[in-house]
Amino acid sequence: MKQLMAIEWLKIKKYRTFWTIMLLFGACVLLWNLGVTTGVLRLGGDGINLLGSSNSFGGIWDTVTYYTSNFVLVPAIFIIIGITNEYQFRTNRQNVIDGWTRLQFFHAKWYMMKSLALTVTLFVAVMGLVIGLITGASFAYIGDNIEKLVYMLILCANYFGFALMISVFVKRSGLAIGILMLYCMIIEMMLHFFFLFKLKLPFLDLLLPLQSSDELLPSSTFNALLKTGKFGYQPPTLTYAIVSCIWICIYYLIARRRLMRSDW
Protein backbone atom coordinates (compact mmCIF):
# COMPACT_ATOMS: atom_id res chain seq x y z
CA MET A 1 0.00 0.00 0.00
CA LYS A 2 2.80 2.44 0.90
CA GLN A 3 4.46 1.88 -2.47
CA LEU A 4 1.23 2.52 -4.36
CA MET A 5 0.57 5.70 -2.39
CA ALA A 6 4.15 6.87 -2.93
CA ILE A 7 3.80 6.47 -6.69
CA GLU A 8 0.47 8.32 -6.71
CA TRP A 9 2.08 11.13 -4.76
CA LEU A 10 4.87 11.38 -7.34
CA LYS A 11 2.20 11.79 -10.01
CA ILE A 12 0.44 14.71 -8.36
CA LYS A 13 3.05 16.55 -6.28
CA LYS A 14 4.14 18.66 -9.29
CA TYR A 15 0.73 18.65 -10.96
CA ARG A 16 -0.40 22.28 -11.10
CA THR A 17 -4.06 21.42 -11.55
CA PHE A 18 -4.04 19.51 -8.26
CA TRP A 19 -2.51 22.37 -6.29
CA THR A 20 -4.74 24.95 -7.98
CA ILE A 21 -7.90 23.03 -7.13
CA MET A 22 -6.85 22.28 -3.56
CA LEU A 23 -5.68 25.85 -2.87
CA LEU A 24 -8.94 27.18 -4.28
CA PHE A 25 -10.87 24.76 -2.10
CA GLY A 26 -8.86 25.62 1.01
CA ALA A 27 -9.13 29.37 0.49
CA CYS A 28 -12.88 29.32 -0.15
CA VAL A 29 -13.59 27.07 2.84
CA LEU A 30 -11.37 29.04 5.21
CA LEU A 31 -12.66 32.48 4.21
CA TRP A 32 -16.30 31.39 4.28
CA ASN A 33 -16.05 29.72 7.69
CA LEU A 34 -14.11 32.64 9.15
CA GLY A 35 -16.74 35.02 7.81
CA VAL A 36 -19.61 33.03 9.28
CA THR A 37 -18.13 32.25 12.69
CA THR A 38 -16.88 35.81 13.26
CA GLY A 39 -20.18 37.31 12.13
CA VAL A 40 -18.74 39.12 9.10
CA LEU A 41 -21.11 37.13 6.87
CA ARG A 42 -24.64 37.53 8.20
CA LEU A 43 -28.18 36.70 7.19
CA GLY A 44 -30.89 38.26 9.30
CA GLY A 45 -31.25 41.26 11.58
CA ASP A 46 -31.68 42.25 15.23
CA GLY A 47 -28.66 40.25 16.36
CA ILE A 48 -29.82 37.09 14.54
CA ASN A 49 -27.50 35.37 12.08
CA LEU A 50 -29.27 32.59 10.21
CA LEU A 51 -25.94 31.49 8.76
CA GLY A 52 -24.96 30.46 12.26
CA SER A 53 -22.15 31.70 14.46
CA SER A 54 -20.87 30.45 17.78
CA ASN A 55 -18.24 31.20 20.41
CA SER A 56 -18.19 27.62 21.68
CA PHE A 57 -16.31 24.70 20.21
CA GLY A 58 -19.50 22.65 19.96
CA GLY A 59 -20.98 25.30 17.70
CA ILE A 60 -17.75 25.77 15.78
CA TRP A 61 -17.52 22.07 14.86
CA ASP A 62 -21.12 22.22 13.68
CA THR A 63 -20.45 25.28 11.57
CA VAL A 64 -17.12 24.38 9.93
CA THR A 65 -18.16 20.84 9.03
CA TYR A 66 -21.54 21.88 7.61
CA TYR A 67 -20.18 24.67 5.42
CA THR A 68 -17.12 22.66 4.33
CA SER A 69 -19.46 19.87 3.22
CA ASN A 70 -20.92 22.30 0.69
CA PHE A 71 -17.51 22.62 -0.99
CA VAL A 72 -16.48 18.95 -1.21
CA LEU A 73 -17.43 18.80 -4.88
CA VAL A 74 -14.27 20.82 -5.60
CA PRO A 75 -11.77 18.10 -4.55
CA ALA A 76 -14.17 15.48 -5.99
CA ILE A 77 -13.58 17.13 -9.37
CA PHE A 78 -9.86 16.52 -8.95
CA ILE A 79 -10.57 12.83 -8.30
CA ILE A 80 -12.27 12.73 -11.69
CA ILE A 81 -9.50 14.64 -13.46
CA GLY A 82 -6.77 12.50 -11.90
CA ILE A 83 -8.37 9.22 -12.95
CA THR A 84 -9.67 10.19 -16.39
CA ASN A 85 -6.26 11.62 -17.30
CA GLU A 86 -4.82 8.14 -16.79
CA TYR A 87 -7.08 6.88 -19.56
CA GLN A 88 -6.64 9.91 -21.80
CA PHE A 89 -2.84 9.82 -21.73
CA ARG A 90 -2.66 6.00 -21.56
CA THR A 91 -0.59 6.07 -18.35
CA ASN A 92 -2.83 3.32 -16.98
CA ARG A 93 -1.44 0.99 -19.64
CA GLN A 94 2.10 2.10 -18.85
CA ASN A 95 1.55 1.17 -15.21
CA VAL A 96 0.61 -2.36 -16.25
CA ILE A 97 3.58 -2.56 -18.60
CA ASP A 98 5.79 -1.53 -15.68
CA GLY A 99 4.53 -4.48 -13.65
CA TRP A 100 1.33 -3.37 -11.94
CA THR A 101 -1.80 -5.46 -12.03
CA ARG A 102 -5.16 -3.87 -12.80
CA LEU A 103 -6.13 -4.38 -9.18
CA GLN A 104 -3.04 -2.53 -7.98
CA PHE A 105 -3.85 0.35 -10.31
CA PHE A 106 -7.39 0.48 -8.93
CA HIS A 107 -6.23 0.28 -5.32
CA ALA A 108 -3.73 3.09 -5.93
CA LYS A 109 -6.64 5.34 -6.96
CA TRP A 110 -8.75 4.14 -4.06
CA TYR A 111 -5.95 4.91 -1.59
CA MET A 112 -5.57 8.35 -3.18
CA MET A 113 -9.29 8.94 -2.65
CA LYS A 114 -9.13 7.91 1.02
CA SER A 115 -5.99 9.99 1.60
CA LEU A 116 -7.67 13.05 0.13
CA ALA A 117 -10.73 12.51 2.35
CA LEU A 118 -8.47 12.27 5.41
CA THR A 119 -6.52 15.37 4.36
CA VAL A 120 -9.71 17.43 4.01
CA THR A 121 -10.88 16.24 7.44
CA LEU A 122 -7.57 17.16 9.06
CA PHE A 123 -7.73 20.56 7.37
CA VAL A 124 -11.20 21.11 8.85
CA ALA A 125 -9.94 20.08 12.30
CA VAL A 126 -7.05 22.54 12.16
CA MET A 127 -9.33 25.25 10.78
CA GLY A 128 -11.77 24.69 13.62
CA LEU A 129 -9.00 25.06 16.18
CA VAL A 130 -7.75 28.27 14.55
CA ILE A 131 -11.26 29.74 14.44
CA GLY A 132 -11.72 28.77 18.08
CA LEU A 133 -8.62 30.74 18.99
CA ILE A 134 -9.79 33.75 16.98
CA THR A 135 -13.29 33.77 18.48
CA GLY A 136 -12.07 33.07 22.02
CA ALA A 137 -13.81 29.70 22.42
CA SER A 138 -13.00 27.81 25.61
CA PHE A 139 -10.79 24.77 25.05
CA ALA A 140 -12.52 23.13 28.01
CA TYR A 141 -15.37 22.27 25.63
CA ILE A 142 -13.26 21.25 22.66
CA GLY A 143 -14.76 17.74 22.73
CA ASP A 144 -18.35 18.96 22.30
CA ASN A 145 -19.68 17.68 18.95
CA ILE A 146 -16.19 16.47 18.01
CA GLU A 147 -17.86 13.48 16.32
CA LYS A 148 -18.70 15.91 13.51
CA LEU A 149 -15.13 15.44 12.27
CA VAL A 150 -15.77 11.69 11.89
CA TYR A 151 -18.92 12.49 9.93
CA MET A 152 -16.88 14.87 7.80
CA LEU A 153 -14.50 12.04 6.93
CA ILE A 154 -17.39 9.74 6.01
CA LEU A 155 -19.01 12.43 3.86
CA CYS A 156 -15.76 13.13 1.99
CA ALA A 157 -15.14 9.43 1.39
CA ASN A 158 -18.70 9.06 0.10
CA TYR A 159 -18.46 11.95 -2.37
CA PHE A 160 -14.95 11.06 -3.51
CA GLY A 161 -15.81 7.37 -3.87
CA PHE A 162 -18.84 8.30 -5.96
CA ALA A 163 -16.65 10.50 -8.18
CA LEU A 164 -14.13 7.67 -8.56
CA MET A 165 -16.86 5.27 -9.63
CA ILE A 166 -18.14 7.71 -12.26
CA SER A 167 -14.59 8.18 -13.58
CA VAL A 168 -14.06 4.44 -14.04
CA PHE A 169 -17.23 4.22 -16.12
CA VAL A 170 -17.04 7.43 -18.16
CA LYS A 171 -13.25 7.94 -18.62
CA ARG A 172 -13.70 11.47 -20.01
CA SER A 173 -13.16 14.29 -17.54
CA GLY A 174 -15.65 16.80 -18.97
CA LEU A 175 -18.48 14.32 -19.25
CA ALA A 176 -17.72 12.75 -15.87
CA ILE A 177 -17.69 16.15 -14.13
CA GLY A 178 -20.96 17.04 -15.87
CA ILE A 179 -22.60 13.83 -14.66
CA LEU A 180 -21.35 14.41 -11.12
CA MET A 181 -22.68 17.98 -11.02
CA LEU A 182 -25.98 17.02 -12.65
CA TYR A 183 -26.61 14.22 -10.18
CA CYS A 184 -25.48 16.11 -7.06
CA MET A 185 -27.07 19.47 -7.76
CA ILE A 186 -30.25 18.51 -9.62
CA ILE A 187 -31.26 14.84 -9.65
CA GLU A 188 -30.56 13.93 -6.04
CA MET A 189 -31.71 17.34 -4.81
CA MET A 190 -35.07 16.83 -6.53
CA LEU A 191 -35.44 13.37 -5.02
CA HIS A 192 -34.50 14.71 -1.59
CA PHE A 193 -37.15 17.43 -1.65
CA PHE A 194 -39.72 14.99 -3.04
CA PHE A 195 -39.18 12.64 -0.10
CA LEU A 196 -39.05 15.50 2.39
CA PHE A 197 -41.90 17.79 1.36
CA LYS A 198 -44.16 15.69 -0.86
CA LEU A 199 -44.05 12.36 0.97
CA LYS A 200 -42.94 13.85 4.32
CA LEU A 201 -40.70 10.83 4.79
CA PRO A 202 -37.16 12.19 5.38
CA PHE A 203 -35.82 8.74 6.25
CA LEU A 204 -36.09 7.78 2.57
CA ASP A 205 -32.92 9.85 2.15
CA LEU A 206 -31.23 6.65 3.28
CA LEU A 207 -31.83 5.37 -0.24
CA LEU A 208 -29.89 8.25 -1.82
CA PRO A 209 -26.11 7.71 -2.02
CA LEU A 210 -24.89 11.24 -1.32
CA GLN A 211 -27.83 12.60 0.65
CA SER A 212 -27.30 9.87 3.25
CA SER A 213 -23.98 11.58 4.02
CA ASP A 214 -25.39 15.10 3.78
CA GLU A 215 -27.78 14.17 6.59
CA LEU A 216 -24.76 13.64 8.85
CA LEU A 217 -24.01 17.37 8.76
CA PRO A 218 -27.30 19.28 8.47
CA SER A 219 -27.54 23.03 8.94
CA SER A 220 -28.61 24.35 12.33
CA THR A 221 -31.73 25.88 10.75
CA PHE A 222 -32.75 22.55 9.24
CA ASN A 223 -32.12 20.85 12.58
CA ALA A 224 -34.53 23.28 14.22
CA LEU A 225 -37.21 22.39 11.68
CA LEU A 226 -36.71 18.69 12.29
CA LYS A 227 -37.10 19.17 16.03
CA THR A 228 -40.59 20.59 15.47
CA GLY A 229 -41.62 17.16 14.18
CA LYS A 230 -43.07 18.72 11.06
CA PHE A 231 -41.37 16.26 8.73
CA GLY A 232 -42.05 13.10 10.69
CA TYR A 233 -39.61 10.46 11.89
CA GLN A 234 -35.91 11.20 11.52
CA PRO A 235 -33.51 8.22 11.84
CA PRO A 236 -30.58 8.48 14.27
CA THR A 237 -27.42 10.02 12.89
CA LEU A 238 -25.59 6.74 13.37
CA THR A 239 -27.99 5.14 10.89
CA TYR A 240 -26.96 7.61 8.20
CA ALA A 241 -23.29 6.99 9.03
CA ILE A 242 -23.71 3.23 8.61
CA VAL A 243 -25.65 3.60 5.36
CA SER A 244 -23.01 6.00 4.00
CA CYS A 245 -20.29 3.44 4.75
CA ILE A 246 -22.34 0.80 2.94
CA TRP A 247 -22.59 3.07 -0.10
CA ILE A 248 -18.81 3.57 -0.04
CA CYS A 249 -18.35 -0.22 -0.12
CA ILE A 250 -20.81 -0.43 -3.01
CA TYR A 251 -18.81 2.17 -4.98
CA TYR A 252 -15.67 0.13 -4.38
CA LEU A 253 -17.22 -3.13 -5.58
CA ILE A 254 -18.90 -1.60 -8.64
CA ALA A 255 -15.81 0.37 -9.73
CA ARG A 256 -13.51 -2.59 -9.14
CA ARG A 257 -15.71 -4.92 -11.17
CA ARG A 258 -15.95 -2.39 -13.99
CA LEU A 259 -12.21 -1.76 -14.12
CA MET A 260 -11.30 -5.44 -14.02
CA ARG A 261 -13.66 -6.26 -16.88
CA SER A 262 -13.31 -3.21 -19.14
CA ASP A 263 -10.93 -2.67 -22.04
CA TRP A 264 -7.92 -0.45 -21.45
Quick rundown:
This protein is an all-alpha fold and 264 residues long.
Description of the structure:
The relative contact order is 0.12. The chain has one domain. By secondary structure, the chain is mainly alpha-helical. The chain has helices at residues 2-12, 16-37, 57-69, 73-88, 91-97, 102-135, 147-170, 173-198, 211-214, 220-227, 237-261.
Which SSEs are present, and which pair or pack?
Elements: H1 2-12, H2 16-37, H3 57-69, H4 73-88, H5 91-97, H6 102-135, H7 147-170, H8 173-198, H9 211-214, H10 220-227, H11 237-261
Helix pairs in contact: 1-6, 2-3, 2-4, 2-6, 3-6, 3-7, 4-7, 4-8, 6-7, 6-11, 7-8, 7-11
What are the defining features of this structure?
264 residues, mainly alpha, 11 helices, 72% helix, 0% strand, globular, transmembrane, membrane, transmembrane helix
Query: How much helical structure, as a percent, in the residues?
Result: over 70%
Rg, Å, rounded: 20 Å
User: So what's the overall shape?
Assistant: globular
Q: Main sheet?
A: none
Query: What is the averaged pLDDT score?
Result: 86
Beta-strand residue fraction? under 5%
* Count of distinct structural domains: 1
Structural class: mainly alpha
- Kindly state the number of beta strands: 0
Order of helices and strands: HHHHHHHHHHH
Keywords: Membrane, Transmembrane, Transmembrane helix
Transmembrane segments: 21-44, 64-83, 116-143, 149-170, 177-197, 237-254
